[in-house]
Write a sequence for this structure.
């Protein structure tokens, strides 16, 4: 992805990578992270040691339960904050009515 394309992003970015992913090297994930930072794009990039590609897929060979659970929790928190402006843990909040789609 070209820097011009990343610079055009006007929304926060979250990314999850496995350190053992053969298709996306750690160096690529780190470059992505540092490029977003240098462009001023709000981001949270996570790299999980010992995790391969598709580590969050419970039906796959690379499933890593602990990393998958952590990534899921971070995803839910990111979406709650980004979409609804909520930063309290799920268990501390009442149901949120987001209206009719």
């Amino acid at each position: 992805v070209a820097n011009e394309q990343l610079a055009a992003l006007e929304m926060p970015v979250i990314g999850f990578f496995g350190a053992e992913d053969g298709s996306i090297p750690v160096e690529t994930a780190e470059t992505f992270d540092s490029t977003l930072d240098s462009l001023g794009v709000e981001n949270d990039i996570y790299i999980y040691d010992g995790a391969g590609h598709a580590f969050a897929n419970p039906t796959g060979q690379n499933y890593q339960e602990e990393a998958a659970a952590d990534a899921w929790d971070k995803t839910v928190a990111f979406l709650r904050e980004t979409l609804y402006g909520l930063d309290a843990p799920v268990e501390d909040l009442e149901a949120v009515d987001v209206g009719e789609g």
The helical segments are 3-7, 26-38, 65-84. DSSP finds three helices and two strands in the chain. The mean pLDDT is 90. The beta strands are 13-18, 43-48.
